[in-house]
Amino acid sequence: MADIAQKWSFAREASPGPNLLARLFDWKPFLVFLCLLPAIGLLVVFLTYPLGLGLWLAFTDTKIGRGGAFIGLENFASLYHDPIFWTAVGNTIFYTATATIGKFALGLWLALLLNHHIPFKSLIRAIVLVPWIVPTVLSAVAFWWIYDPQFSIISYILKDVLHVRSTNIDFLGTPWAARLSLIAANIWRGIPFVAISLLAGLQTISPSLYEAAMLDGATPWQRFRHITAPMLMPVLSVVLTFSVLFTFTDFQLVYAITRGGPINSTHLMATLAFQRGIPGGQLGEGAAIAVSMIPFLIAATLFSYFGLARRKWQQGEGND
Amino acid sequence: MTDAALATPEPAAPERLGVISWESGPRKLVTVYLPLACFVIVLLFPFYWMAITTFKPNNELYNYKDFNPLFVHSPTLANVKKLFFDTDYPQWLWTTMLIAIAATALSIFASVLAAYAIQRLRFRGANWVGLAIYLAYLVPPSILFIPLAAMVVKLGLFDSPFALILTYPTFLVPFCTWLLIGYFKSIPYELEECALIDGASRLQILRKITLPLAVPGLISAGIFAFTLSWNEFIYALAFIQSSEKKTLPVAVLTQLVQGDDYQWGALMAGALFGSIPVALFYSFFVDYYVSSLTGAVKE
Questions:
Q1: How many domains does chain B have?
Q2: In A, which residues are within 8 Å of B182 by CB distance?
Q3: Which domains does chain A have, with CATH numbers?
Q4: CB pairs under 8 A between A and B
Q5: SS3 B257
Q6: Does residue B176 sit in the same domain as residue B289?
């Protein structure tokens, strides 16, 4: 036995080179550093640094291809007196609020429908997700064609099939019609994500709770109000935060369908930042518009944090 | 059977307001199937419209009086032919695919290592690193593209696919890392302990034990990353200028629309064929997709 042990230790010391390397790779701090390096490196260089750079750019008069000088709050001051900026802020808030309410009302309804025992459930679930999978810009192009002033299929159905209107609807020609059309497209795209996420939340609710409530004579509304709603709240708050965050910073739909028109009346803050910053070349001013979105985003994130904290409390679990 | 006895005092209550009920029959038809059918029709209609516009000849496209617009009367491939032979469409498809694959590979590589370190190496502050990565997901591209554009120009990457391959991981890595942390959690730690006792090194364990078991998780993270990079728009719009290097969503919107003369047929064909690869890719893995999506939300 001792002989074997000696051979083993001999073998171990015979090749110090690879052994040292192997031991280095088993040394935990080094391994942790090595494993985190690619992810953290990418995120620091392309996310954290640009975030800081964006804050800095907002206080300079940088243009594309030319460094700028620090000009203090001048960008924000000029935005403060810019009616287009305030239209964009108002649009963004209105767009986010209306689209979110629409998405969650319809998404919750769809989730409740899908929670029934129905044939071909998995197929229907797969179909329902399609608007969320397909590139937003490409479905936006389809909406652009659906909203065509002359050949809109919606106008055709309302005018020539149902005879409820006598003229075509000018979907994108006037500010309010354009805003509402964009909101409809955003709701259309957002329903699947909300519905599928809420469906997952619904499926975690134990049927025995409903049985108990039915035995106590609870009405369907009472069952929804006192079982479904509170049990769904944790999932709902997370999905809501994500939805608000991504609707607030939406860019693609508006850029693809109206490009901010007619006459800058449908700009969101993101599209205005793009228009001023990239084609307009005023990086500093664009950055200032983008930075103005940050307070709203922080509010949404805090909302998410407290939603999560509440979930732990509701489930009565520890910290993991 | 006491259930029935207890339920008898108010037998009509669930009937009367049947919003959620397990009853079948005509009531279910009105409360469940009819609304569900409306949802499916509304959610799919834009794609149907996209598809039939693609195959309509021009005289049908602009004449609703003589041809019912909801159907194709004499299907034609003219729009498809125009798209594939008169524009750079194949080139755009190819570029988009290459960029999506490269960005996905880079992100999965970084995410696997990070998720393994956070979930399995159990170092101090692992939870904080996890939280920081999660917060990174909450930073939307809309506020990053301007400083990134300045960086990309400075690094000499403007108008190069590398600008996109390097910036897409900013939203892919946080997402994939969180997905994989959840997946690694579901793999029993005992397997790794056994290997540790047998003298395997940490990297051997990752390569020979954890990764093979995590293949379903890797696939779903890969699908997510691929579709997200295929769909990405704002970076591709801001960082790429020359027509032949554009990604598909950007190219369809900026290259197929020239002036006020919209070629709706070709435009719809472009949108349709740009959607099909993602839809196909997704349809093969729909179960992974739904379970990881809902898993990520529940996490």
A1: 2
A2: none
A3: 15-49 (no CATH), 76-313 (1.10.3720.10)
A4: 307
A5: strand
A6: yes
C-beta of residue A137 within 8 angstroms of C-beta of residue A159 = no
Contact B169, B148 (CB under 8 A): no
Among B9, B148, B174, the residue with its CB nearest the CB of A50 is B148
Q: Kindly state whether residues B70 and B88 are assigned to the same domain.
A: no
**Residues B24 and B111 placed together within one structural domain of the fold:** no
Domain encompassing residue B41: 2-76
Q: Is the separation of the CB atoms in A267 and A91 below 8 Å?
A: yes
3-state secondary structure A37-58: HHHHHHHHHHHHHHHHHHHHHC
Residue A70 sits at φ, ψ, to 5 deg, of -65, 125
Angle among Cα A204, A210, A212 to the nearest 5 degrees reads 125
Domain boundary among the residues B51, B76, B101 is at B76
Contact partners, residue B71, CB within 8 Å, separation at least 6: B52
Side chain identity at B68, as an amino acid letter? Answer: N
Give the Å distances, CA to CA, from A317 to A205, A238, B56, B77: 17, 18, 59, 60
Beta pairing partners, B261: B258
Q: How far apart are CA A220 and CA B13, in angstroms?
A: 8
Q: What is the pLDDT along chain B (299 residues), one digit of tens a residue?
A: 334 433 334 444 444 444 444 555 777 778 888 999 999 999 999 999 988 888 888 777 777 777 778 888 888 888 888 888 888 889 999 999 999 999 999 999 999 999 998 888 878 888 888 888 888 888 888 889 999 988 888 888 888 899 999 999 999 999 899 888 888 888 888 888 888 888 888 888 888 888 888 888 898 889 889 988 988 999 999 998 888 889 988 988 888 876 666 778 888 888 998 888 888 877 777 766 666 666 555 44
Question: Are A43 and B170 a contacting pair, CB within 8 Å?
Answer: yes
Q: In whole angstroms, give the CA distance from residue B52 to residue A117.
A: 33
Inspect the interface and report whether the beta carbons of B174 and A43 lie closer than 8 Å: yes
The C-alpha angle A60, A64, A66, rounded to 5 degrees, equals: 65
Residues B141 and B266 in one domain: yes
Query: CA B143 to CA B148: how far, in whole Å?
Result: 9
The label of the residue with tokens 């993602």 reads B278
The 10s digit of each residue's pLDDT in A194-237 is 998 888 888 888 889 988 998 998 888 888 888 888 888 878 88
Q: Using alpha carbons, select from A279, A243, A248, A241 the residue that is nearest to residue A91.
A: A248
| Amino acid code (one letter) for A156 | Y
**B123, B143, B144: best to mutate for the A interface, most A CBs within 10 A:** B143
Identify whether residues B143 and B288 lie together within a single domain.
yes
